[in-house]
Structures are given as structure tokens and as C-alpha cells.
Amino acid sequence: MSEQQLEADYLIVGSGAVGMAFADTLLTESDASIIIVDQHQRPGGHWNLAYPFVTLHQPSAFYGVSSRELSKGRKDEVGLNKGLGDLASGTEVLAYFDEVMRHQFLPTGRVQYFPMCHYLGDGLFEQSLTGKRFHANTRKTVDATYLKTSVPANHTPSFKIDAGVAFMPLNDLPKVKQPADNYVVIGGGKTGIDACLWLLENQVDPDRICWIVSRDAWLLDRRNTQSTEEFFHSSIGAVAAQFEAIAQADSVDDLFNRLEQAGVLLRIDQTVKPKMFHGATISQLELQQLRRIKNVVRKGRVTHLQTDQIVLEQGSIPTSTNNLYIDCSASAVTNLAIKKVFQGNLITPQTVRSYQPVFSAAFIAHVEACYNDEAEKNRICSVVPLPNHDTDWIRMMAALMMNQYQWSQVPELRDWLLANRLDGMGKLVRSASKDDAEKQAILTRMRNNSAPAMMKIQRFLADIN
């Protein structure tokens, strides 16, 4: 089959949040032309497959492309996120990216967009409906799919499921027509949290919820992630408290104790030591609700769902065919391997700031647009590893602090960060009045502990290695 030849400066594989954020910065800061290829029928990546009640886990102000606001600039007045910055729903996120593509990207005349296409490698891709093939002749390829986000809708469970067992992905939960005796939520991560909260919000008795948690997780207080001035004391205060905890801790265990005491990290059950950290955020109201669930099973991962028992790695528990099983065992990010962001004509966006892959993509695109030396670009865009185990918080924080320090030494990068809407915390620090004694005291704590914290985190890094 012949291939249609296409020309552009960049080929971006994936029109999810990472690919869109990268393209947006390139369009804003260069005159580059771009080809965007994606398997879905519209931009938004995995949001096309998200469960119906999904929302962002961080404030909308931190999400989307740099040039267009997603947040409505308001706080939630009802629900379990009450009093905190609005969390866009999945449908809002999809509509937002569609707007960006149709009303910003395509009208420039510099973007060619190919939805419903499978990328085959080496610039070659195929349209799903027609089989027509295209070849993109470009200077560079951007692999915006590298993190390989997994969602419940297309996740294949790793355990056996017998006939007669009522089992469904989380996406199907709102379709339930008949009550089950009990609802068994499989998975202790953010998806499992969302399932439990949805059941509780829909009046399911907490005693009818069985929550299978293979590993308890450290969580972040969402109040500490707000970027508006009224939350300065919690958001910037949490950074200061974090530096203090690192600087003053005398062991890894002591560090986590101090982080919890300072409100930087939270856990649902205070009698169980978490072994997992994925950077999930939670509100205090959500925490209160989750603590109502008492039937939490901690016997490792599920290996077999039988009609009369649930077999786990460390034992089994009785069950019934009248129970409904909800699969929340998909890992959000399935590729934790790190590679250099810039390698010849290949760019692989990864996190250069913890918890923020979208900001990271925009930042990497800025570096691509404004810097020439590959070694220098990779030094500026050192990858912050995605966390999995509890002690990965230390690895992540060490890399993050090093990046933040390096960026602070470059006036051009400091200016870019302050001007970029996805970097709310920098503006919050800069906005603090010199006459505000309380805010200045927080900033003094942060500054006084930053260097000792950087030294101490290296010691803890050696300990866990």
C-alpha cells in the first residue's frame, strides 16, 4: 500500500495531556510546524476512556495547556472537595482539549491532526477506519505516550475469575440496576479510593463495602496543593514544613513520622504503615468518609475470584455470588523506566517536576524551543522518578529539589516559570507582601531549611539505596 508523504518539523505521537501541553508551548514559543497522531477519535488521551464520575485529583489550575485556563477560578461549594479549588470532571477535560485543538491549534495552519490512527514507528502511521498509511517526514519525534497510562476500562486483571462471579470495571459501576449484598472494591490506589467514595456518596452502607488493599498508601492533603493566596499558609507552609522535616529527621522512619505530624503526608488507617506512595491527593472530608469503611482486607493481591471465596497472596476470605466485584487494580502509569528526555531526533517527555506531567511537558517544550545543546537540555530536564514504594518519596524529592535549585540559578528559566500559568506556587511565593509578617516567617523557614534539607535528603537516599 502506498503511503502519503507529510512534512513538518515535529511529529507528536499522542494527543493526551502531555502531547497537547508540549504542542501548545512549541506553537507559542517557536514557528515550528507539527503533526499530531493519536489512536482516539478526539484529543485527551486516556480521558476518552475514563470512568463517568472521574475528576482531576489536583486543582484544575494546575492542568491543561499553558496558554488556556481550564479552571473556572472558583472553589467547590458542595461535596467532599468543599472549600477547595474546583476539580474538572472527565467530560470537562475532554471538552477543554477539543476546544484547544479546534480553536487554537488547527487555526494556526501549523498543525496537522490525525485522530483514529495507529502509530507504527519510524514516522509511519495508519488510519484505523480506512487502512490508509501516512509517513511523516519530520526533524524530530515526540513520544508523548511513553508513560503508558493505564485505565480501568481497558485493563486486563492479573487474577482468575470464575464463571458466576459478578465482576466489572469501574466504568460500569453507575450502570448497576440491582443492589448487591456487598460491594468488593479491588485496589488500594486512587481508583479504589474513587470507587469507595462514589459508593459512600450514593448511600451505600460502609459495612456493605469490602475494600481489598494490597498496600496502604501515603497520601497528600489536597489543601496543600492550592495555588491561590488564601491558601498560602497551607500550600507554602507545607513546603516549609517538608523542608523542616527532612532537615531535622535522623532516620527514614523519623522522616515519615515528621512528614505525617506536619500534615504533609496522610494515611487512612493510622495503625498501618503505608508501603506505597503514588502522589495521590485527598481532602480531609474524603479521608473522614474512607475511615468509615472497616472491612479492609490486607492479605496481598487477589489471585483468584471464586464463587465461594476470594483467594489472595496471603490467604483467602469467604464470599458469595451475591457480591459485586469492582476492578480498580489498574496502575495509572505502567512505565516507570527512566530514559533521557532528549536523544538525537527523539524527545521523550517525562516528569521533571513531581506530580505534574503536564507542567513537565510544557517545560520540556520550552527547553527544546530555546536551547540547542543536547547535554545542556538533558541537564535542565533531569527526570524526577515516578514514585511507587513509600521510600520512593525520597528519590522523587531528591531529584525535584535538585531541579528546582538548578532552575533557580538561571534567570531566563526563573522568568519563564513565573510567567507560566501551570507553575502556580512560584507566583504564590512572589506575591507575598514584605509587610506580611506571617507569610515572611513561612518563607524564612523555607529558605533556612532548604540547604540542610538538600544535604539530608542525599543521606537518606544513600540509606535506601
Structure description:
The structure is a single chain. By secondary structure, the chain is α/β, with parallel strands linked by helices. It is globular and about 60 Å long. Helix 1 runs parallel beside helix 2 (90-105) and helix 4 runs antiparallel to helix 5. It has helices spanning 17-29, 90-105, 190-201, 232-248, 252-261, 284-290, 357-370, 374-380, 392-408, 411-419, 424-431, 437-464, and strands at residues 3-7, 10-13, 34-37, 111-114, 117-121, 124-127, 133-137, 140-143, 160-161, 166-169, 183-186, 209-212, 217-221, 265-266, 276-282, 296-297, 302-305, 309-312, 315-318, 324-327, 342-343, 346-347. It is 34% helix and 18% strand.
| Class from secondary-structure proportions | alpha/beta
Helix content: 25-40%
In spatial order, strands of the major sheet run: 4-3-2-8-22-21
Query: How large is the radius of gyration?
Result: 23 Å
Largest sheet: 6 strands, mixed
Spans where pLDDT lies below 50 across 5 or more residues: none
Bulk shape? globular
Question: What share of residues are in beta strands?
Answer: 15-25%
Number of strands: 22
